Structure formats: structure tokens, C-alpha cells
Automatic annotation (TrEMBL), chain A:
GO terms for molecular function: transmembrane transporter activity. It is found in: Cell membrane. Keywords: Cell membrane, Membrane, Transmembrane, Transmembrane helix, Transport. The keyword Transport applies. This is Sugar ABC transporter substrate-binding protein.
TrEMBL record, chain B:
The keyword Amino-acid biosynthesis does not apply. This is ABC transporter ATP-binding protein. GO terms for molecular function: ATP binding; ATP hydrolysis activity. PANTHER family: ABC TRANSPORTER ATP-BINDING PROTEIN (PTHR42794:SF2), HEMIN IMPORT ATP-BINDING PROTEIN HMUV (PTHR42794). The lineage of its organism: Bacteria, Bacillati, Actinomycetota, Actinomycetes, Kitasatosporales. The keyword Magnesium does not apply. Keywords: ATP-binding, Nucleotide-binding, Transport. CDD domains: ABC_Iron-Siderophores_B12_Hemin (cd03214). Pfam families: ABC_tran. Residues 3-232 form the ABC transporter domain. It comes from the Bacteria. It comes from Streptomyces cellostaticus.
Length: 351, 252
């Protein structure tokens, strides 16, 4: 691929303002659009009532519940999940110095899938009630993280290739376990739910899930943004990092723990929504360049916008049935991504 | 700033890559490391710029052990051009040079910009600022990396074969740039004539040990070169400048 000698560097402030506005519009759009066929005026009124604590007429309670208890948490959660996946994708690509990496390359999501499917298919942890799925997914994500870390460690710390190979190999193992559970399950409907989870869905979103995920994603993002410059050095190479006063082994270990924790939390509520964490970092780099100070400022917003709209489409395309949101991110994302890639002179991992 | 390497030893998989190396680079001098491939030059330099912690011995900057210093404090005194090239991320030249500011504290954007602009002007890469680093030629890349090292405002510069893959004009160009910086320099070099022309002092390394050291023309004697590099060397006087050059054949 020919590369333009001058990579594109769009000024940051207009991009940030534009994306913030777009995100706000997307949140509104996400709440307004849906299978229930509520009018915009109604939706806005319920939102206003919800925000200000206004009163809702008894006849409208069902519609109000749809807006305030079903659509809004789902849209907000979608934004948070998209932001988290995008930020983690940026960090993981720098951590393993590989343009093909995404949040799932470390095997965390495949580990989470084992826990989630144990609940969906085998009814494990039934005593936890509605929390069983998230708790079990998160717990098994943590177990996967510990396993990947233990296997990938070497006397030289976590080296990029070892991390990718370990993550990928263990992911195959976890997926095998999940597959056995899916095929072993007696009920066809359960297998469908399992599939839904594996491809990612925000269908189970409730307000109760939002705070924990939002805080984790925000904390993870702040931590990463504070390390934007060391991430630049790490992207240039371990020796360069050392010469610039960054300890690559230590930074990579910390990055592994932070990205794995955020991935585990996000995946626990949404399943493995693919493509956001791979594509958004690249699209953002095409737009604002490779400097992580800029990429990490823009990527979460872009990821949030993408996932909110992908979720809207997943609800509407086959309404009243739902598609897994991961299918939409791929269907919408792949052509857009390929188009951008062909048009721009963007370098994917060198020449 | 003075650089002392005191008895540095590096072990990997029970073999000694570097064994009890002692050398000194006086403030403001240019010292060269020469030796065959695999002799331990790069390993030794990696200990100096803290990519590797030696099993024994110490690397001192004006008496302070670099491995005991805070990493960023060490990076404020010592910059390096390692021999690695990652090509995953398309940074611009300006962004690569700006990375040199990372170890500094209490920075302001304006001061950083001024330091980077100065570094780029000194190395003649200011016109490349908005270009992608990956699209540059080998010679341009080395100039940019030197600019990054200068933006670090160090007092010691460590170079690991900085002239690799460069044509002859760029080799001379890179070394004169480094010399013009006035920093204390320790460089591993492959080209013995180039090393002799630019270094005040040479250390010859073979099998992880220093086997000779001194002014270039005292050190680069045919007997030593035959033993260390396995080549026959003929000293010849340059007809124009009078400088001694070496011509090489394989040993019979």
C-alpha cells in the first residue's frame, strides 16, 4: 500500500467538540428510536420528567418505564461499553505493539464467556438471581486474566509476542469449553441466548449495572490517559522506552492488569462486542495521528457513538426480535473501515 | 558528564555475554566500542541505557549508579539511540522528537516546542516535522532519532551502531552531527576506519571482554585485528589527508 508522506493530523478541539455533540445526539436518538413506537415529544417529555423528578400520569407509566427504565440505561450502558472497548483497544495495541490486537486478544473475553454460559446454559450461581450472569462472567474473566498472566510471564517480564500467543492459545481453550457447554445444553432457546451473549448484546441493561461499569471505564480511561506519553515510548520499542526513562516491563504489567480489569467488567455486562476495540483505534489514528495523547482523548467518544448506533440498529432491524450488537458493529464497521483504509495513506504496521 | 563502566558482567542462560568490563568516557569525549558480531557491544550498551540490568558491576554517571537512579532522572542525563526499529505506529517526525521531552519535569508546551524545534534545526530535520517517520529514508530516520536524543537535553549520548544501513555520505554526516553536539559519547561502531577517524579513544571487545584500549592508531594494529576479527589489515596513508586508513583481506 502506498503511504502518503504526511499523515493526517486534524486539529483536536473541533474533533472533540464535534464528537461530544454527536454523542449527545446519539444518546437522544438511542432513547427516541425503538420498537415501541413512542413519539419524540413523548420521549422528550418522559426524559424531562425523569431528570427533574416531575410527575407522570398513571396512564403513561408503561411508556415512561420503557423510556426511563429500559431504553435509557441501555443507551447509556452502550456508550460506556463502547468507550471502554475503544480506550482498551488503543492501549492493548500499544502494549503488544501490534495493529491487529484488540481487547479480546488477551483471552479475557473468552474466559468471561465460560462463566456467562455456565449461568445461561447450566444455571450456575442461581442464588445470585439477576446478578448471576455478570458476577459469573466477571469472576471467570478474572480467572482467565490470572491464568494468562501466569503463563505469559517470563524472566524478561511480559513480552509482546508471548502475551499475544498466550492470550490467543488460551482463548481457543476457553472457547472449546464454551462450545462443549452449548452443544451439551438440552434447551435450544438457551443455546440461542448463549450465542447472543457470545456476539454481544446490551439487551439485559439495567440502571443497577451502569454505575459500576461507568466508574471502572472512567477510572481505566483516566489511568491510561495519564500514561499517554509512556505509551508513545512503548509503541516505539522497549529499548527506546528504557532510554526515555519508562520501564517497559513494569508498564506492560500495569497495562495488562488495567486493560484486563476494564475488559472483564465491560464484557460481564455486554458480552463480547467485537470490532469496536479493533476498528475505533485505527479510525481515530487515521483522523488525529498516532500520538496517544490525542488518540486516547478521541477514541472513547468515537467508540461510544459507534456502539450506541449499532445498538439502535440491532433493536430495529428485525424488530421486535433483536440481533446481537456485535453483528451490527461488523456489518456497519467493516465496509466503513475498508473504505477509510483504502482512501487514506494510513500505515498498518509498517510497509 | 563522565561515564564509568565498572566491572559490568551480564549473564544469560548461564553463559557470560559480558565479563567484567571496565571503561571510562571522560566528559565531552567520543569513545568507540569495536568488536566482531556477538562480542557483547550491544549488550554492554543496553546496560548503560538501562534496558538491561547487569548481573554484576555498575554504570556510573559522575559517580551515580544509573540503575539506582530514578529512571526518568537517569534519562534526563543520558540519551540513547538503540538498534531497534518498530514500525507499527505512524508517528510524525515532530511527535517522535517530542518523545525526548518525556523524562523532564515541570514542562510547559511552549518550552517543549522550543527545545524540539532547536533539536530539529540542529540536525537539519525541521522541514520534515509533519512527515511520517516510517516513510523517511534511513539517513533521515537516524537524524530524527538524534534530534529526539537532543530534545532529551542529555549530557551523555549512547549510540548502538548508528551508521548501520546508511550510505557513506550519511555515515559521515551522522557521526559529525554527534560530534558537533559536544556531548559525552559512547558508540558501538562496525566500520573501523570510521571509528578511527571519529573516536578519541577505542575499546576493542571480543568474547565479552575488553582486549585492547587506547587511541585508535595504537589499538588498531594488524596483529590485534588478525586475532580479534580474523582479517589481515594493511595500514595505508591517505594520499590527500595523510590519515592512516586500513585495507582488509581475509587471513590466508
Amino acid at each position: 500500500m502506498r503511504r502518503r508522506a504526511t499523515p493526517s493530523r486534524t486539529p483536536l478541539l473541533p474533533v472533540l467538540l464535534g464528537l461530544s455533540f454527536l454523542l449527545l445526539a446519539s444518546l437522544l436518538g438511542g432513547v427516541g428510536l425503538g420498537a415501541a413506537g413512542l413519539g419524540w415529544a413523548e420521549v422528550l417529555w418522559y426524559l424531562w420528567a425523569g431528570l427533574t423528578g416531575g410527575t407522570v400520569h398513571a396512564d403513561d407509566v408503561a411508556a415512561y418505564t420503557i423510556v426511563w427504565e429500559i431504553r435509557l440505561p441501555r443507551v447509556v450502558l452502550g456508550a460506556v461499553v463502547g468507550a471502554g472497548l475503544a480506550a482498551v483497544g488503543v492501549a492493548v495495541q500499544a502494549m503488544v505493539r501490534n495493529a491487529l490486537a484488540d481487547p479480546f486478544v488477551l483471552g479475557i473475553s473468552s474466559g468471561a464467556a465460560v462463566g456467562a454460559n455456565a449461568v445461561i446454559l447450566l444455571g450456575a450461581f442461581a442464588s445470585l438471581g439477576v446478578w448471576a450472569l455478570s458476577v459469573s462472567a466477571f469472576a471467570s474473566a478474572l480467572a482467565a486474566m490470572a491464568l494468562v498472566y501466569a503463563v505469559a510471564r517470563s524472566p524478561h517480564g511480559l513480552t509482546p509476542l508471548r502475551l499475544i500467543l498466550t492470550g490467543t492459545a488460551l482463548a481457543y481453550g476457553f472457547e472449546a469449553v464454551t462450545t462443549v457447554m452449548v452443544f451439551g445444553a438440552a434447551r435450544g432457546e438457551a443455546a440461542r441466548s448463549a450465542m447472543m451473549w457470545l456476539l454481544g448484546s446490551l439487551g439485559g441493561a439495567t440502571w443497577a449495572q451502569v454505575p459500576l461499569v461507568a466508574v471502572t471505564v472512567a477510572a481505566g480511561w483516566v489511568w491510561l490517559r495519564l500514561r499517554a506519553e509512556p505509551l508513545n515510548a512503548l509503541a516505539m520499542g522497549d529499548e527506546t522506552s528504557s532510554a526515555l526513562g519508562v520501564r517497559p516491563a513494569r508498564l506492560r504489567r500495569d497495562l495488562f492488569l488495567v486493560t484486563a480489569a476494564v475488559t472483564g467488567t465491560v464484557v460481564a455486562v455486554s458480552g463480547a462486542v467485537g470490532f469496536v476495540g479493533l476498528m475505533v483505534p485505527h479510525v481515530v489514528r487515521m483522523l488525529v495521528g498516532a500520538d496517544h495523547r490525542r488518540v486516547l482523548a478521541v477514541a472513547p467518544l468515537a467508540g461510544a457513538v459507534l456502539l450506541v448506533w449499532a445498538d439502535v440498529l440491532s433493536r430495529l432491524l428485525l424488530a421486535p426480535a433483536e440481533l446481537p450488537v456485535g453483528v451490527i458493529t461488523a456489518v456497519v464497521g467493516v465496509p466503513a473501515f475498508l473504505l477509510l483504509m483504502r482512501r487514506g495513506g494510513y500505515a498498518f504496521g509498517g510497509r | 558528564m563522565r561515564l564509568d563502566i565498572e566491572g559490568v558482567t551480564v549473564e544469560a542462560a548461564k553463559t557470560r555475554l559480558v565479563e567484567d568490563i571496565r571503561l571510562t568516557v571522560d566528559s565531552g569525549t567520543f569513545v568507540g566500542l569495536v568488536g566482531p558480531n556477538g562480542s557483547g557491544k550491544s549488550t554492554l550498551l543496553r546496560c548503560v541505557y538501562r534496558a538491561l540490568r547487569p548481573a554484576g558491576g555498575a554504570v556510573r554517571l559522575d559517580g551515580d549508579d544509573v540503575h539506582a537512579l530514578d529512571p526518568r532522572a537517569a534519562a534526563r542525563s543520558l540519551a540513547a539511540l538503540p538498534q531497534e526499529s518498530s514500525a507499527e505506529f505512524d508517528f510524525t517526525v515532530a511527535e517522535v522528537v517530542a518523545m525526548g521531552r518525556l523524562p523532564h519535569r515541570g514542562r510547559t508546551a511552549a518550552h517543549d516546542r522550543a527545545v524540539c524545534a532547536d533539536a530539529m534545526a540542529r540536525t537539519g530535520v525541521a522541514h520534515l516535522a509533519e512527515r511520517g517517520f516510517l516513510a523517511l529514508s534511513g539517513g533521515e530516520k537516524q537524524r530524527v532519532l538524534i534530534a529526539r536524543a537532543l530534545a532529551q537535553q542529555p549530557r551523555v549520548l549512547v549510540l548502538d551502531e548508528p551508521t548501520n544501513h546508511l550510505d557513506i555520505a550519511h555515515q559521515l554526516d551522522v557521526l559529525s552531527l554527534v560530534r558537533a553536539s559536544g556531548l559525552t559519547v559512547l558508540a558501538a561502531l562496525h566500520d573501523l576506519n570510521l571509528a578511527a577517524a571519529h573516536c578519541g579513544l577505542l575499546y576493542v571487545i571480543d568474547g565479552g571482554r575488553v582486549v585492547a584500549s587506547g587511541p585508535p592508531h595504537d589499538v588498531l594494529q594488524p596483529a590485534l585485528l588478525a586475532e580479534v576479527f580474523g582479517v589481515r589489515a594493511h595500514p595505508v596513508r591517505h594520499p590527500g589527508t595523510g590519515a592512516v586508513q586500513l585495507l582488509f583481506d581475509l587471513l590466508p
